[in-house]
Amino acid sequence: MDDDRSKWCFHTLGTYINHDDWHKTPEGKDYFASILRHGKRRVFGCLESPLTLVPSHLEQPKIMKYKLCLVGKTGVGKSSTVAKLCGQRVPTTHVETPGIITSVTYWPAKLKHSGKHVMFRLQFWDAGHAVQRKFDHIHPACREKAQAVLYFFSFIDRSSFEDLRTQFSKSLSNEDTPLLVVIGTKYDQYNRSEITSRELLDFQKQWQVPILKLKNVLKPTETNALLAGDSCAEIDDVAPVMNTLVEYLWIHDQVLSGNIELSSSPKLNTSREEETHSASDRDSDEDEATYV
Amino acid sequence: MAVHLVCLTNEGGVPLFTRTKGDVKSLAFAEQGMLYGVQMFAQNHGVKLESTTTEEAKVIWQVFHDSVTLVLVTSNDGSCDIHYKTLINHIFHAMVMFIGLETLVSIRTVEKLRREIKVCYPVIDTLLQDTDLYGALSSSVDVLVSAENTTLQEPLEAFVTSAESTFGCLHADGKLVVATSNWWALSGQEMMLVAKFIQSLPIGTSSDVPIYLPHASPKDPHRLLSIHLQPGVVVSVLCYANPTLAEAEEQLIEPAWRLHHEALRAIQRAPSSNIPRTIPLDAGILGYVLLNTDQHKCLSSVRLPLIAGGAAELKPLPPYARREILTAFYRTVVGGLFPPSLSPERQDSSGEAYKCLPHSAEETYMCGDDFKTYALNSGGFQFFVLFSSAVPQYAMRSVTKNLLGTLSKEKIFVDRRTKSS
Ligand SMILES: Nc1nc2c(ncn2[C@@H]2O[C@H](COP(=O)(O)OP(=O)(O)O)[C@@H](O)[C@H]2O)c(=O)[nH]1
Ligand SMILES: [Mg+2]
């Protein structure tokens, strides 16, 4: 593991990209309208793009394309996370992914320093575990030219977290330097968590990677409320995670192209932790209780 | 109507998986063992147990390649066994499609197989569900009729060629719109299973999935690349090592499809009748299934719009009721009067009632309290039409014949298969 890789990770979130409910401002709303249809996320085919839908009187955003490769044990919630971040209904039962499935989602944002608008295009590369074992070409295809690797563990599956440790301690290839992000799923079940906050902090310190905590599955009533009608509740729900993800991707790009200096000493920003949660759980989960 | 499916190893009866349809618990371990035991007992005595009927249910057994036993428990609708066997046959071949024949024929470790077999669930579950599509019932592929059937041929060929393949097709909402001649030459079951799989993919995605064609290539996997061009409109190509999914998406899609946005949008907006708007429809028709038995193409709809002032409007039947009636009618007529349209590989169609008829039946009809149905078997087509009960009996024959005459001339029914030498 090269040491330089992740030092920039802990830039204070919100330094480069507007978080604070930018999507609710009149300006943000205009841009977000291009990825929505009747208040729900619009699905784009391979031949389509939201750019044609951005009103012509607005500054046309630049498209920033990223490939993100998903890694983690079967059943940790990779496919569910993709569905969640793409604004689709999360399946309640596990469906084994039969090969590689890639999903695209667009996310508009405003860069703080230049005031310019960008349209992030994230393509998630998700592959089933059984099929990866059986066929050699699957994993390399997902990893090839990926700008980010998302490592998954589930809060209610200790072994998925142990797997992560093994993965990280194996030397990572130096040819490309993707952004590394750890995603902990099933955080809605944190009272059954098999991983302590201490362990997470230690992991974060050791490997200098951001850890996002996700709740993909809500109670049926909550899910219905999120996806119902023309409210943009679904956008509100994923905005903190999406903004975090795109900011990390953007910073990573800038560091690689030399536009941002690496800060000499990595700074752990404590407020960052909180920003990675869904807005709804701010109050409940910051206690340092030792689970297990 | 609840359905239970149990899959076990034929040697030893180790359960591999179970699926159910409807709000029911899956069968208890002991019940699964019992179902297996009865069949094994018969096998050991040189008897092949195929099916049994209880007061309410029908149980069908089938052993594939002496390796995998499938048991289907479903309610008995009084139709010929052929339809249950068709379903069980589709289920086995869906398993072959995802994990290959060899893995199923020589089972090494049950644990590993159980893990691998999970990828088949979405397609198997769709096969068990009720659907508006009739392809599975008729072992054929559901097709979409549109003026674009011909205009989209050229971009498809260009795309498939650029991907170094000769097997490719375009689906819209689970129905085949255009395909290469090699694709059309696949069996009806293969085209249908791939269509079901493509329909099960999350909308807007691109995918690269290893597929074994159950009859054309049951032991050698190919990569099936499926790319959503627009939501619900998916182009697929079958290839070996090249191109990668990223290459196909980034380099091959644009050149082939760029100029065809409008045509693609038109098939997205295809009418729910699945009949071109230019063809006049009798106001009494509520739904239909049209089958080309030789080419294994199935054109159907149970969502014909009610025409204001038309006969059907007086007693409207909702789509689910239309589907149930047409399905029941199909299951009664096919096997009973008309020959089933099976893939040539099937060898289990013995003893069907239609074979005992002194002549081959060409037409039949049925009248219920709130519907009428008419069926024709003529010139390589089987045509099943659901009418409103307001339509007089004497009119059904000529309306059905006329519509068949028109529809059978649609471009989608031009035989594009490569002739095998
Ligand atoms: N409670 C809860 N369940 C989740 C969450 N994420 C995923 N799941 C469930 O975990 C199971 C496996 O998820 P899936 O996304 O298919 O896992 P994958 O194999 O990594 O793609 C499914 O039944 C999901 O409903 C979550 O955040 N909370
Ligand atoms: Mg998955």
TrEMBL record, chain A:
<dbReference type="GO" id="GO:0003924">
    <property type="term" value="F:GTPase activity"/>
</dbReference>
<dbReference type="GO" id="GO:0015031">
    <property type="term" value="P:protein transport"/>
</dbReference>
<dbReference type="InterPro" id="IPR001806">
    <property type="entry name" value="Small_GTPase"/>
</dbReference>
<keyword id="KW-0966">Cell projection</keyword>
<keyword id="KW-0206">Cytoskeleton</keyword>
<feature type="compositionally biased region" description="Acidic residues">
    <location>
        <begin position="283"/>
        <end position="292"/>
    </location>
</feature>
<dbReference type="InterPro" id="IPR039677">
    <property type="entry name" value="RSG1"/>
</dbReference>
<comment type="similarity">
    <text>Belongs to the small GTPase superfamily. Rab family.</text>
</comment>
<keyword id="KW-0969">Cilium</keyword>
<protein>
    <recommendedName>
        <fullName>Ciliogenesis and planar polarity effector 2</fullName>
    </recommendedName>
</protein>
<keyword id="KW-0653">Protein transport</keyword>
<dbReference type="InterPro" id="IPR027417">
    <property type="entry name" value="P-loop_NTPase"/>
</dbReference>
<keyword id="KW-0813">Transport</keyword>
<dbReference type="GO" id="GO:0030030">
    <property type="term" value="P:cell projection organization"/>
</dbReference>
<feature type="region of interest" description="Disordered">
    <location>
        <begin position="262"/>
        <end position="292"/>
    </location>
</feature>
<dbReference type="GO" id="GO:0006887">
    <property type="term" value="P:exocytosis"/>
</dbReference>
<feature type="compositionally biased region" description="Basic and acidic residues">
    <location>
        <begin position="270"/>
        <end position="282"/>
    </location>
</feature>
<keyword id="KW-0547">Nucleotide-binding</keyword>
<dbReference type="GO" id="GO:0005525">
    <property type="term" value="F:GTP binding"/>
</dbReference>
<keyword id="KW-0342">GTP-binding</keyword>
<dbReference type="Pfam" id="PF00071">
    <property type="entry name" value="Ras"/>
</dbReference>
<keyword id="KW-0963">Cytoplasm</keyword>
From TrEMBL, chain B:
<dbReference type="GO" id="GO:1905515">
    <property type="term" value="P:non-motile cilium assembly"/>
</dbReference>
<dbReference type="Pfam" id="PF19036">
    <property type="entry name" value="Fuz_longin_1"/>
</dbReference>
<dbReference type="InterPro" id="IPR043970">
    <property type="entry name" value="FUZ/MON1/HPS1_longin_3"/>
</dbReference>
<dbReference type="GO" id="GO:0016192">
    <property type="term" value="P:vesicle-mediated transport"/>
</dbReference>
<feature type="domain" description="FUZ/MON1/HPS1 second Longin">
    <location>
        <begin position="164"/>
        <end position="249"/>
    </location>
</feature>
<feature type="domain" description="FUZ/MON1/HPS1 third Longin">
    <location>
        <begin position="284"/>
        <end position="411"/>
    </location>
</feature>
<dbReference type="InterPro" id="IPR043971">
    <property type="entry name" value="FUZ/MON1/HPS1_longin_2"/>
</dbReference>
<dbReference type="Pfam" id="PF19038">
    <property type="entry name" value="Fuz_longin_3"/>
</dbReference>
<dbReference type="InterPro" id="IPR026069">
    <property type="entry name" value="Fuzzy"/>
</dbReference>
<keyword id="KW-0963">Cytoplasm</keyword>
<dbReference type="GO" id="GO:0005856">
    <property type="term" value="C:cytoskeleton"/>
</dbReference>
<protein>
    <recommendedName>
        <fullName>Protein fuzzy homolog</fullName>
    </recommendedName>
</protein>
<dbReference type="InterPro" id="IPR043972">
    <property type="entry name" value="FUZ/MON1/HPS1_longin_1"/>
</dbReference>
<feature type="domain" description="FUZ/MON1/HPS1 first Longin">
    <location>
        <begin position="4"/>
        <end position="127"/>
    </location>
</feature>
<comment type="similarity">
    <text>Belongs to the fuzzy family.</text>
</comment>
<keyword id="KW-0206">Cytoskeleton</keyword>
<dbReference type="Pfam" id="PF19037">
    <property type="entry name" value="Fuz_longin_2"/>
</dbReference>
